Amino acid sequence: MILAALAGAACVFGFAPYYAWPVTMLALCVPFLAWSRATTARSAFISGYAFGAGFFLAGVSWIYVALHDYGDMPAILAAIAVLLFCAFLALFPAVAGWATVRATSNPGWRLVLAPAAYTLGEMLRGWIFTGFPWLAIGTSQVPFSPLAGFAPVAGTFGVTLVACLIVSLATIAIRRESKVRTRSAMVVAIAVVFGIGAALQSRDWSESAGAPLSIALVQGNVPEELKWRDETRLKTLDDYRDMAIAANAKIVVLPETALPELFDRLPDAYLDGLRVAARKDGRQIVAGVLERERAGSGYAYFNSVVTLGDGDSATYRKRHLVPFGEFKPPGFAWVFALLKIPMGDIEPGGNGQGALVVDGTSFGVAICYEDLFGRELIDSLPAAQILLNVSNDAWYGHSLAADQHLQASQMRAVETGRWMVRSTNTGVTAAIDPKGEVVSRLPQFTRATLVASVEPRKGMTPYADYGDWMALAVAAALAIMAAWRGRDRPFAALR
Description:
Elements: H1 2-10, H2 21-37, H3 41-60, H4 63-70, H5 75-89, H6 91-103, H7 107-125, H8 151-174, H9 180-201, E1 207-208, E2 213-219, H10 224-227, H11 230-246, E3 251-253, H12 268-280, E4 284-295, E5 298-308, E6 315-317, H13 333-338, E7 356-358, E8 361-367, H14 374-377, E9 386-391, H15 401-416, E10 419-424, E11 430-432, E12 438-441, E13 448-454, E14 457-458, H16 462-466, H17 469-485
Parallel strand pairs: 2-3, 3-4, 8-9, 9-10
Antiparallel strand pairs: 1-14, 2-13, 4-5, 5-6, 7-8, 10-11, 11-12
Helix pairs in contact: 1-2, 1-3, 2-3, 2-6, 2-7, 2-8, 3-5, 3-6, 4-5, 6-7, 7-8, 7-17, 8-9, 8-15, 8-17
C-alpha cells in the first residue's frame, strides 16, 4: 500500500510543469504488477485505492487554496473536504483493480484487462456528477511523448489506453516469471507502439485557413481577494480598459470575468469608450463578463464572453459549470453557507451555441474549466478555426493548478489540430500550436499583454469526427475479450 501510494504521488511529475511523461507510466507499473499478482479482488482494490489516494492528494490538493484562502471555509473543514474529494477520486483506480482481478485469475489476461479497466474508470470519472477529468493519464503525454500522436485519432482517453497498454507490456517484461524471449518481445512491442505514435505525431491533421492573425492576450493579474471589492472595482475596470486600448493587435482578449461588474450595469460611457477605441483601429475586443437576464421574478446569471467592436456584440455563455464554484449540487446548499464565492450560483448556457465569430474568424470558446472536456469543445468544429480559452486560476494561488490547466489546453490543441490561445487573470496566458507546443507565454502573476501570431486552421481530425466513442469501443472490446478468454485459456506470452 505504501509503495502504491508513493507511485501514485510520483505520477504527478509526469504532468505540467514537470512534463516528465515516462514517470507516469513507470509509476503505473506498481498497481498493474500488484493486480497481476493479487490473490483476491479485495487486495487489488486496496492497492488501486492506495495508488489513487497518493495520486490525487499530490495532484489536486490545491483545491484547499480555493476553499480556505479565497472561499473562507474554516481550515479543518477545507482539509476534510479535500480529503473526502480525493477519497472519492481514488475509488476509480480501486474499482479498476477490483474488476481486473475479479474477472480472471490468469496474470497475463489481467494485464490485458487492466489498461481497459483503468481507461474505462477514467472515462467514468470524466462524466459522473458532471465529470472531473483532471489529470487524465493521456494528458501527461502531451506534447513531448510520441504517444501524443494518438490524441488526434482517439483523444485523451485513447492516449490513456495506449499508455496503459505500454505499462502492461513493461509489467510483463519485468515479471520474474517471464522468459527472455517474452521480455524481448515486449520490448519490441513497446518500440513499435512508440514508433506508430511518432509517425502519427509527424502528420498534419489540419491545414491553413487563412493568413495569421495578431491576437493580444491580456493578463491583468488582479488579486482574487481584491477583485470584487467596491473600493478596487473601478481601478480594475480602468486597468483593463487601458490595457485593451494599448494592445497592438487585431483582436484583443480579456480573461474570464475580467470586468468585475454585471455587463448590463457597466457604465455606458465605459463600454462606448471600448467600442470607439476598437472601431477606430479596426479591432475587436473579446471580454469575459457576467451577464444576467430576467427569469420569472428574478434574474438568471451567466458566465460569458462578449465581443465589442464593429456591429452587434456576439456572446458565448459557459455551458459546463464547476460544482460548488458556480452551481449548487442538489443536497449541498449547506456548503455554500460556508463559502464566500461571488456569483456562485449561475445558469449554464445552452448547447449548440457554435463558434464565436470575431473579425471574420471563427473561435471555439471554452471558459475556464470547459477546456477539460474534449468531447464538448469539438462541438464547435469544423467551423472553429482557432480555439480560445479564458480563465481565472487565481483561485488556486501559487500551486500546480495553473500549469496543469495549461496542459489540458495543450491536449485540446492536439486533439483538434487547431491553435489554442489562452487569456488568464494570473496565468498561464499562452499561445499553443496544433502540436501542443507552447509557442509563447507570460510569466505567472505579472501584469502584461502577450501578442501572438496565430494561424486559422481547417479540417477534422478523427477525434473531432468521432469524439470519445473510439476509445470507449476499443477499451470495452478489450475488456470483454480479456474477461472471456481469461476464464480458461492461458496467456500465450506467459507460457
